[in-house]
Amino acid sequence: MMIIDIRNRFLTLIILLVVPCAGKSNSLMHRFDSISTQIEQTALYRGAEAKMNLNMLREMADAHADNPSLYIRTLYLEAFLYNVQGITDSTLIPRIKTGIEQHDSPTLSFEKTLLNYTLALSYFNVGNYSDAFATALYALDDFKALGNRKFIVKTFLALGNICASISSDTMAEDYYRQALTFIEPTQTEYYALHSNIYMIWSHTPARRQEAIDSLLNLIPVYRDRNETGLLAVILLNIGACYQSNSEPEKAFLFLKNMLDSIQNVDNRRLLFSLYQNLGNYYVSANNLKNALDYYTLSKNIAAGDRNPAFLSHVTLHLSRLYAELGYEDSAYYYLRQHNSFNSQFYNGAKAIEAYRSYISVFLESSESRLKIAEQDILLQERRFIITLISVFALIILVISLLIVARQRKRYKEAENRDLEMRLQHEHQIQQLQEEKIEAQIREITSYSLLLFNKNQVLQQIADASEHKPKTTADINESYETINRIVKNNLNTDSDWNNFVMHFEKVHPHFFDRLKSCGDTLTETNMRICAYFRIGIAPKEIAQMMNIAPDTVKVTRHRLKKKLGLKEDDSLDDFLRKL
User: Domains in the chain, please, with CATH?
Assistant: First the structure.
């Protein structure tokens, strides 16, 4: 049994277009935006009204040819509306291609990308799935570069719908779920995407009941939101699921509800799907006359809208039905028509399935997934050797390779940036190490200076005591000389000035910075600070200055106050930073 075609496409009708128009407050743009919003909101269930509004936009775009944005947006809305209503216009694709040629700018822009997305929608609507898929991939890459979340969602949705149309359910569900990552759970689109996923589940008998239950739970959601068109779609899909589940009476109940509510919904695509499913029901009920009536109604809609997907479905059902009725000529006629319509879908399905690995490369950024995709490409190429390689498949191959090359270029640029950052970081570390070594050399030099001063004092004492005293007077004179040397070097200004002169060579401007931090510092304070700066222990400082060790501790505490340091601040760290 056929699950209605609307299950694969209807979400495309839901996500509203919000074209950036910041800064355009004039009346023309305001009116254009207002009409655009009305088309987006009414396309699903008030088709005639949406077409009238579309004609108004065409007139506005023609009257303001100097504003190409109006023309591009009108093309998009036209493709959007035709996709919603299932209408095929042979002139739309050439007009879009002309717009792309006229907008052939080397710089990436929203209008340029919107045209590519519009072209993908139009290819999809006429059943050219391979070109639709390739163009949608290209548009997705550009929308990502632009950071346009709304159209990233719409493009993921289009890719999912294309895959669902060729029964590639795994790929379709993957695209739908990627679209969900860009949508808030409170949005209507969130539930509509889940509805598409549930319809994919219904294709598997083991999950069909789960799909039906999930769809039933969406009915109160759409009623609360007053979504008339989407509620009709849900009723139609539930009926189709019950029909596939061999529960025709339940199916007819929902289809009948849909038939009653369709009076308030102006959408030929929905009407076509309803007639198809009613025909399926009457076939299962062995009421072939009613089945033929409904199939004929759906055929008239498909022929009037020139929709190849619709015609492919209905001609298959008519062929089977005429065979049941014993009209072999009619059965054969419709079977030939079905095969003709179906061949283009088969080629598109083969092309998309063949390049599934390229899609993985496009969507995944990690190196491991890239290697897996490359292996998948090799397998697919061997598969193509056995089968005929179509022209459409070659086009997708070229486009996919360009996408892979672009991604690889971006990966390489990212690696180069990371390498440059690492080199800068290593340079900074090396510079810090050099500064640390230089500071250590200064400390060693300062300490050596003190040792040198001590050695000078000891040398003077040694020189004074070198001559052996012969008399008591000589002994006293030697004692007085040594005592004088010791006193002169215990705490003299000349010694201190000598120390300061050498200290400043190792630690330039230390005392100037220290004075600027504390106006009340005494010379003793500054001397102790200098000793602390070069790492001399408090006990050694006491011996050098001929003061008690406790005095050094008390002075240390007072120094922190004079320098404005907190109780838990380190005086040593403070002095080292001067």
Answer: 6-354 (1.25.40.10), 492-578 (1.10.10.10)
